[in-house]
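[Q] Does anyone have a clean structure-token version of this?
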Amino acid sequence: MQTEHKITKQNYKDYVFNKMPKSSHWKNMFWAFIVGGTICAIGQGFIELYSIWFSDQDASILASSTLVLIAAIMTGFGVYDQIGRFAGAGSTIPITGFSNAVVSPALEFRTEGYIYGVGAKMFLVAGPVIVNGVTISVIVALICMVLGVL
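[A] Here you go.
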């Protein structure tokens, strides 16, 4: 005779907890710090290099653009996704993560055409970030204007 097991919230929660792979938070934080710091150091290196020929503001813009371009190319070759799996937030927080978030869906949906595939899906992940960033910027500018800070 077979014994019936009634599934409850608690024993299901225990089952999932026991089956869930255990992660090493300290190791993940270490590698996120190392990779994110390396990306930022490379960006600072580009700023220093571009400062030889351009103003500081232009050098910063060029450095950001260079990092975005490099990350887009690395995403196209599948390299950035491997870095992301390894480094987690260390690769997604810098501007290179934004580039990856735009290029990945565009590559994934390119078979659906340039308009409905690449154009429509390109900002699937990055779109909400852009909308929220612009909205918060406008709100902060309005508050500063009302307070007379600007």
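[Q] Thanks! Anything notable?
[A] The chain has a mean pLDDT of 84.
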